[in-house]
Amino acid sequence: MAEEQNKKPCRFWIWASASVVFRLILISFPGNLNLSSRPEVSTPLTSIRRLAEGYWLKQASMSPYAGSMYHGSPLLLSILGPLTVQSIKGQPSHLLCSLVFVIADILSAMLLRGIGQKLQMAYGLNARLLGFLKSSRDKVILPCGDIAALVYLWNPFTIVSCVGLSTSPIENLAVVLALFGAVTRRVPLAAFGFVMATHLSLYPATLAIPIIIILGYGLDAPPIKLFLQTRSVENEKSSTSTVSKQAKSKQTTHLPFLWKTVAHFLFWVLLWSLYVLVLCALSLNKYGGLEEMFKRTYGFILSIEDLSPNIGVFWYFFAEVFDFFRNFFLIVFHVNVLFMLLPLVIRLKHRPCFLAFVYLAISSILKSYPSVGDSALYLSLWALFVNELIDMKFSFFLFCGYLGISLLSPVMHNLWIWRGTGNANFYFGNAIGYACFQIVFVVESVSAMLNHDRALRRSSSNHGEVKS
Amino acid sequence: MKVLTLVMLLCYSFAFSSGDTTIHTNNWAVLVCTSRFWFNYRHMANTLSLYRTVKRLGIPDERIILMLADDMACNARNEYPAQVFNNENHKLNLYGDNVEVDYRGYEVTVENFLRVLTGRHENAVPRSKRLLSDEGSHILLYMTGHGGDEFLKFQDAEELQSHDLADAVKQMKEKRRFKELMIMVDTCQAATLFNQLQSPDVLAIGSSLKGENSYSHHLDSDVGVSVVDRFTYYTLAFFERLNIYDNASLNSLFRSYDPKLLMSTAYYRTDLYQPHLAEVPVTNFFGSVMETLHTDSVYKAFSSKTSNNKINSEMPLNQLSEHDELQKANIQNDELKTEKQKCPYTQMRVDLHKKLEKLENVDTVVNLGIAVMLLVVMVSSSLL
Q1: What does the pLDDT read at residue A459?
Q2: A275/B363 touch (CB, cutoff 8 Å), yes or no
């Protein structure tokens, strides 16, 4: 057993380093294999060409947002901009940028592993508390941290968005950093990750809810009723006097909410956001300041100005909607994301990490400009819950669906744009299929999680009956 | 009280409608050839000759709207490809390398013509196709083609009627799109086309009266068609003698038309035009010679409203810079005095803003800021 456990980390490191080597090999191909021009990989928000353009505009003393090319953060421009310009002789262009993205991927994988280890420990602890395991050897708990990290590193979507030079790896790193900080209770780190993720792309703002729940209540756990059931059963067994029974039955059904930690988190969020805003205001001082930045980044995301095709569903719709109804439909589409937040919180508040996964999955389906980099993130977060989601239905169907869509998408794009034998409907049909598969995936994983909780409840009540 | 303000407004409008307050600032030319097909070669040659004359005398391409069917130069029946002549001696190739046609082919329609005149275009129409004249413009409108009693035929498919033209000119006057307009028409029964005109400051001349035809001048046996009309031929003969510095008057132009040579009566209408024809140089319309006023002082736009002008325009240049500095110092003193009364917060913001403007290496500061941020993150995450 000990040998196996030693072998497992070794195998993990072997696979991880193999994926890094694979990426480096792919990067060394000239022209990044034309992946940076694929609409699935680079969107108007994540394209490195637009970043290079924004950097050039900045160097030419113009606003980086002039000409509606660059729509990202000015801080990213300061970090990645100089790297897009420098090229080492004999090496493919943008090599330094690719290395930055590879490092971002490695960091995300390591952080995912850390999150997974914490979740695994919590899962084992809860299982023992509920009386399922007498020792840790009864039931095999899968090492979800390693699995999640490897899924992230070897997911073709991640590899493609890393080699295709989109800025999704950095956005994913920020999100994973926020989750890691929350899970390991490092409040400034969580706040930093949260602020950076929201700053880079607007949608991770929804992660505020799961992070606050993690910091307030703790990690994923089965519903509290189960704990109270087992405790009441044990109490019935242990003490027979009615007085002690009554005293113990008056226990509260609520976990204590750690307000102090949450207040700490909010304070750090405020601090980091002020700092980031000050830096942005400094760098955009002469070019319109913060107002210009908000209009061009968040305003661009919310108003869907760019209708070039991508793997999402909005471009086709907004190309044909009449101007009179455009604002109405913008509100509808954005509220579509917002109105799902509250019911999910109510239902899944005992599992905040899973809630974070569901939020990220929904926002990557219903984003303004989705790309495969977003899918890469939520697929690897899904892998963190292999222990609970092991009975998920339609897994093979979904896997085939994802595979088919990702293979057909470049074909349809080619037929439409390059050969002219297809039209936009081909590519949009593909995008709709992708959205359907993603929705089925999210729905099935949520129902699998809820079934897991129901199964726990049934087996715990069975346990109680059997014992008494 | 209301009656008084109404009377004041009326007086103002009268004062401005006489056109005395605007000065002549630019010249425009709208040259329209309304015919197509090979046998109407002479109409295109007319228009191109006038285009050449008007350019030679100073109006630039950006102020000329040239509307041609443009199917002569590269016509399959043209023995001299890419060349258009207005004389059988073939001395002058009108279709040289410097002809900018704004509306060509099927774009020469009555609708487009009226849109050009009134300025009511679709949003996508480029500036080169718009008549961007203002209240100081003198516009020359030259039209040639086949016409009749109170109409002008456009490209064999539609016609422009005299009241359409009069309405367009009235709109132009209302919108102050010209200071003076000269209409020159070379068609049969041309004078009937401006029968309905009523707007002031319009001068119109047509090549023939009602019931008369305008004839072509001569046939070019090489090209095979008539190459120029009589009216335009004699107009050009007048202008070829001129250069940009001559100040021949409109009167001499109009008197140069001999009814016997034209075989029609060139009729002109001056009842809507106030200045005496003998005092108006032809370059007011056919060329672009401006009145220049020499001044040593700082340029200011010629408008009657100079209320916000702090700088005295009569000061000579060398004293002007000192005056500017004094002005700036005064303004700064005023600002400081007002600022002391404001709260210190805004004072701090203003100071910060000034410091930021002086800061040149913003990028290094931002990079430093990012590095500090990452450092703080690492430190705080390891400690807390």
Answers
A1: 80
A2: no
Contact A46, A371 (CB under 8 A): yes
Interface test with A, best of B373, B378, B379 (most A CBs within 10 A): B373
Cβ <8 Å between B366 and A79: no
Mean pLDDT, rounded, for B72-88: 89
CA B13, chain centre distance (Å): 25
List, edge to edge, every strand of the sheet that includes B267-269.
B103-104, B64-68, B26-33, B137-144, B180-186, B202-206, B267-269
Which residue of A192, A267, A268 is the best one to mutate when testing the B interface, meaning the one whose CB has the most B CBs within 10 A? A192
pLDDT (average), residues B330-355: 63
Tell me if B384 and A79 make a contact (CB, 8 A cut-off).
Answer: no
Q: Which residues of chain A, if any, have pLDDT below 50?
A: 134-136, 468
Q: Which residue of B has its CA nearest to A190?
A: B381
| Backbone φ, ψ for residue A319 (5° rounding) | -75, -25
B337 alpha-carbon distance from chain centroid:
49
The catalytic residues of B are 146, 188
How many C-beta atoms surround the C-beta of residue B284 within 10 A?
Answer: 21
Please list the residues that pair with B204 across neighbouring strands. Answer: B183, B269
Q: pLDDT grade, residue B313 (50/70/90)?
A: very low
**DSSP-based three-state secondary structure for A422:** coil
Radius of gyration of chain A (CA): 24
> Residue A378: CB partners within 8 Å, gap ≥ 6?
A357, A360, A361, A364
Looking only at the bridges linking them, the beta strands covering B26-33 and B64-68 are: parallel
Can you list the positions of beta strands (E) in A287-417? none
B-chain residues near A78 (CB < 8 A): 363, 366-367, 370
Say if the Cβ atoms of A282 and B356 lie within 8 Å: yes
What is chain B's mean pLDDT, rounded?
82
pLDDT of B167 reads 94
* Mean pLDDT on B36-52: 92
Amino acid at A316: Y
Contacts of B373 in chain A (CB under 8 A): 192, 272, 275-276, 279
Residues of A in contact with B367 (CB under 8 A): 78-79
| Structural tokens at position A449 | 């999680």
A186 contacts B384? CB cut-off 8 A: yes
Q: How many CB atoms lie within 10 A of CB A63?
A: 18
What DSSP string runs through B120-168? ---TT--GGGS----TTEEEEEEEESEEETTEEEETTTEEEEHHHHHHH
Amino acid type, A215: L
CB atoms within 10 A of CB B216: 19
Summarised one tens digit per residue, pLDDT across range A204-260 is 999 999 999 999 988 888 887 777 777 776 666 665 555 555 555 555 567 788 899
| Spatial distance between the Cα atoms of A319 and A334, rounded to a whole number of angstroms | 17
Q: Which helix (H) or strand (E) segment is A25 a member of?
A: helix A2-27
Task: Determine the residue of chain B that is closest to A191 in CA distance.
Answer: B377
A78/B367 touch (CB, cutoff 8 Å), yes or no: yes
Q: Are strands B180-186 and B26-33 parallel, antiparallel or unpaired?
A: unpaired
Q: What is the ipTM of this complex?
A: 0.77
Greatest Cα pair distance in chain A: 84
Tell me the shortest Cα–Cα distance from B351 to chain A, in angstroms.
Answer: 14
CB spacing of A75 vs B356 below 8 angstroms: no
Q: Which residues of A touch B384 (CB under 8 A)?
A: 186-188
**Looking at this protein, which amino acid is placed at residue B258?**
D
- Chain A residue set in contact with B, beta carbons under 8 Å: 74-75, 78-79, 181, 186-189, 192, 272, 275-276, 278-279, 282-283, 285-286
